[in-house]
Fold this sequence. Notes:
heterodimer; A: 64 residues; mainly beta; Ubiquitin-like (UB roll); 5-stranded mixed beta sheet; 1 helix; 11% helix; B: 256 residues; alpha/beta; TIM Barrel; 5-stranded parallel beta sheet; 3-stranded parallel beta sheet; ThiG (chain B); Aldolase_TIM (chain B); Thiazole synthase (chain B)
Amino acid sequence: MKIVINGEPREVTATTLAGLLEERGLPGRVATAVNEGFVPATLRASHVLRDGDRVEILAPMQGG
Amino acid sequence: MKLFYGTALPNPLMLGTAQYPSPAILEQAFRTSGAGVATVSLRREGAEGAGAAFWKMIQDLGVLVLPNTAGCHTVKEAVTTAHMAREVFGTRWIKLELIGHTDSLQPDVFQLVEAAKILTDDGFQVFPYTTDDLIVAERLLAAGCEVLMPWGAPIGSGRGLSNTYALRAMRAEFPEVPLVIDAGIGLPSHAAQAMELGYDAVLLNTAVARAGDPVAMARAMMRAIEAGRLAYQADPIEARDMAEASTPVIGKAFLS
């Protein structure tokens, strides 16, 4: 399945958002959104990914 | 000092965490100045895990964390970012930025009020980055904001307080509301001026991070902020146009 992760097209095997984070090695302190909608951590395991989904994985960064 | 959503700040310096020459200098700037609040952001995570290292350092500093919605241009984008920030940083505080103009980064106050209402209703404690417009301030308070953060000048400009008249009016209009000058500070004298006007805190980033010696500048800012606050509490004299001799005239010798 092809999805877009943080703006980059990727081929993935994971079928859920939780699975995707594991596959990408990003299970740490991140927040997720799919198709511009926030997906809380508690719903990642049940959030099924679809071909063409746009996933954002955000982490703490410097800010002003 | 006024409470910010029930929380007492350790001191009135809110310091940004962006643009420092290195993480070590950022850390040193916080430790040396004693700044009690750090603004932070959310950005796309790469495989290198930079976010985790940054977050650990902020936690080790033991400061209060104020996540922002920097760079958001729509209500939807800002609200989604706020939700993501609340989960990652574990705080209801959100510095709500809704940018309306590309060159000045002036807040879009119409969208700001709308987003502030949505977020407040959702349990957030909103710190709105706003202009010095009093009607907008009223609308933000009506939307549930308990803190206001008017700009001193455009973000990163270092110009100091552009409109002291408006900022003074805002202080007078909302004596009980915690007010923070956010953005535009370039020099310690600007920060001191904000505090002399009776503002409760100053939020700055670029002036420290981009200084030749950020650690020294962070200290200078803290000293200026403390001086400005003391001066405000000390009830300064009114300025006047003509001289008024300070040395007593009575008892002066007749020598001419």
